[in-house]
Amino acid sequence: MDVRIRWKAVTRSRAVEEHLARRLRFAIGRFADRVTAVRAWLEDVNGPRGGVDKRCAIEVDGALGRRRAEVRDADLYVAVDRAAGAVGRLLARAADLRRTHA
C-alpha cells in the first residue's frame, strides 16, 4: 500500500512513518484490493505552543469512494492511531452499505 504523506510544521520522522503504515495496514488491510490511493497529512497546528495541536488527516480513495478522517491530539502517535481507526470504520461502513444495497 503506497501512502503519500505530507508534513507541515512537524519534523519528518521515520518512526512516525512506520507507525502510520503499520496502523493503516491493520485498519484498512482487508480493503486493500479496493483501495487505489492513500494520503495522509501530519501537522503541528500551533507550533511550539503545545496543547492539542497535532493533526492527522487520512484520505482513502477507491472502489468504496473517498473516505476521510481527521483527528487532533496532543500526541501525534495517538492522532495517527485514532485517524487510521476512523478511516477503517468508514470503509467498513461503506462496504456494508454496498453489500446490503446490492
TrEMBL record:
It comes from the Bacteria. It holds the Pfam family Ribosomal_S30AE. SUPFAM superfamilies: Ribosome binding protein Y (YfiA homologue). It comes from Anaeromyxobacter oryzae. The lineage of its organism: Bacteria, Pseudomonadati, Myxococcota, Myxococcia, Myxococcales. InterPro entries: RHF-like, RHF/RaiA. This is Ribosomal subunit interface protein.
